[in-house]
Amino acid sequence: MLSTTLILGLVLGGTYALLALGLTLQYGIARIMNLAYGEFTLIAAFLVVASFQHLGVPPLVALPFVTIAGYGFGWLLYQVMMRPLVARSGSSGRLEVDSILATFGLLFLIQGVLLVGFGANFTSISYLDRGIDVLGVSVALNRLIAFAICVLAGGALVVALQKTRWGLIMRAVALTPGSAPLVGIDVNRVARQGFAIGSALAATAGASISMYQTFSATGGVVFTMKALVIVIMGGVGNVPGALAAGLALGLLETFVATAIDPGLTLAATFAIFLLVLLWRPQGLFGART
Amino acid sequence: MTRISRRAALRALSICMTSTLAFGAGSALAQDGPVKIGYAVARTGPNATGAGITTIPNYELWVDTVNKAGGLTMPDGSQRMIEVVEYDNRSANEDLVRSIERLATQDKVDLILPPWGTGGNLAIAPLMARFGYPQLAVTAVTDKAPDFAARWDRSFWMLGGGHDYAGGLVDVLTKARDAGTINNKVAVVSVADGFGIDLITGARPAFAEAGFELVYDKTYPLGTSDFAAIMSEAQGSGADSFVAFSYPPGSFGMTKTAQSMNYNPAVFYISVGGAFPIYPGVADGKAEGVMAIGGVDAESPAIQEYFTRHTAFVGSPPDSWASAITYASLEMLAQAIERVGLDHAALAEELSGGTFETVVGEVKLEDNQLRDLWWIGQWQGDAFRAIGPADKTGAATPIIPKPEW
């Protein structure tokens, strides 16, 4: 009983964490609160489904391409749309407000394009839906894959950020974007890279979501909300934090659904969210400032 | 700034004049000009999905069909084309109400077609009544339909209420239990949102009355995407029947989860989404035996012709629940106009009392409501066939137990 809850919860948590990784990078490093994040994942999900249905490309094969395309899309978007906002805001706190407004508009733009391009229908494919026995619990293979992707991507990011020079630069920009240029860091370049990697992760998450979940062109905001809750709980820009918060949320939801009542999962999520905001506004793993 | 040269200005002026003349001549040729029909539907926002499946394609298909046939026939035998005025209500009731007001007062349309969804139809009902427009509320499932029909006498409610659907399901299960095919235990989950609440409130007493025991009865929040925990509880509950009062994402999610964990109840019932044409694809071609809300008489030539026409025009087949009813409501409208013209009072009276030939067969409303409906259907072969009420002509025999996934 308990092992069922644990395994199902961890797998669910993994899919949540994967969704949040990109957002935490975009906000943490590029300082852009991307409200269109859910739509980014949807673009990827739709592309994967379309190539699966029309060209017969298996989603797992399409995934790396979508990820690379996501990087390019993020890079371009930062260059065209975010760069002027960053330049205008200087060192003041205006960037946060401006980016929220700009990406809020972007949300509707992408939603409209998706509606025109893919229609309003619910989209759902059947791919690797069979159950896999994990310590006596049957888990859908496609969710296990999403979990594995999350562990791989999250683990690689954590290591890269902590152990490499590149990671050091990223962290420097995240911590004090004002002082980073003093030691010769091109903040614009680093922020652009952070945003692009975030978009690539959003695309990865979208591609894996398309394998196991029903989605429609108007459902992006649900993903953004979930990711936002996890990002804030884990501490903004904190990759291990987002991983831990995502897993914790999955475990919590599964525990509440089996032990108490499925109707309270949402309430439990937001109760924890409130508690974190009240007592640790910097996030569970955020550093005190 | 670019300066507009005199030559360009003159050219523009002449183009304007010719086009005005041409337009004037054109409209003088048509008898009486077009009939203006307005609607405010959700092109964006959360309702866009429902409207995009059930409402908008049928409106467009109908307008196209009527106009290709020369237009709406008036009582004197003349024909008038349909001109559409459309607004996006952005899934917000405030926008919806504003658009309806605009359609009535500024665009002065001849007729207004309803939006998608119970909430939207309730939101505009007082306004439609104030302006005197008949309201053919198709995509509104409500147990209060009799009250609404009495309060707004030009409103028509065509999709029944939660009790009807719950009752239809319980009837099918009762017969199977009495035949000894399933036990009297039922696992039921419902989405904590208007529709799910309506159905579960109707279902609980109906199940109790029929002697069923609800061994698992839980609600889940709207937006839930992972059903592994719920389904494993239901699987362990010992019930032969699994019932979900769900929206499409939930219906699809539960189907996939049941398949991946190899959960094979004798009865697998889901709600909205089960009758969608994409469902067999979602179920990986193993939809056989799955029950869901709605249904059509798949053997009827009128329905088959409608499915073919819809597929050709929209690119995908309609859903097997509210789509055909939506199209039937428009056929009713056209026939009523042919009999009494565009006067709102006469039109409402004709809709209320007349008998109409539609894709779902002969329709006659009772107290402004369509009661001759299918409550439950099942995937059999490649079609979603209606199985209840069992005594209605065209009902298929339910397959219980459902074949394994």
In a few lines, what is going on in this structure?
Chain A is mainly alpha-helical.
Describe it:
The complex is a heterodimer of chains A (289) and B (405). By secondary structure, chain A is mainly alpha-helical. Chain A has one domain. Chain A has ten helices and two strands. Chain A is globular and about 55 Å long. The termini of chain A are far apart. The model of chain A has no long low-confidence stretch (mean pLDDT 88). Chain B is of the alpha/beta class and 405 residues long. Chain B has two domains: 35-161 and 300-364, 3-Layer(aba) Sandwich (Rossmann fold), CATH 3.40.50.2300; 162-298 and 375-388, 3-Layer(aba) Sandwich (Rossmann fold), CATH 3.40.50.2300. Chain B has 13 helices and 16 strands. Chain B has helices spanning 6-29, 48-68, 93-105, 118-131, 145-151, 162-178, 194-209, 228-235, 248-260, 279-282, 301-314, 322-340, 344-353; strands at 35-41, 72-73, 79-80, 82-88, 111-113, 135-137, 155-157, 185-191, 213-220, 241-245, 267-270, 291-293, 355-358, 361-364, 376-380, 383-388. Chain B has a seven-stranded mixed β-sheet, with helices on both faces. In chain B, strands 4-1-5 form a three-stranded parallel β-sheet, sandwiched between helices. In chain B, helix 2 (48-68) packs parallel to helix 12 and helix 6 (162-178) packs parallel to helix 7. The N and C termini of chain B lie far apart (69 Å). Mean pLDDT of chain B is 89; it is low at 16-30. The A-B interface holds A 4-5, 8, 11-12, 15, 108, 111-112, 115, 119-126, 129-131, 137-141, 143, 212-219, 222, 253-254, 257-258, 261-263, 265-267 and B 43-46, 48-49, 51-53, 91, 189, 192, 218-221, 223-226, 228-230, 232-233, 248-249, 252-253, 256-257, 259-262, 273, 276, 278, 281-285, 316.
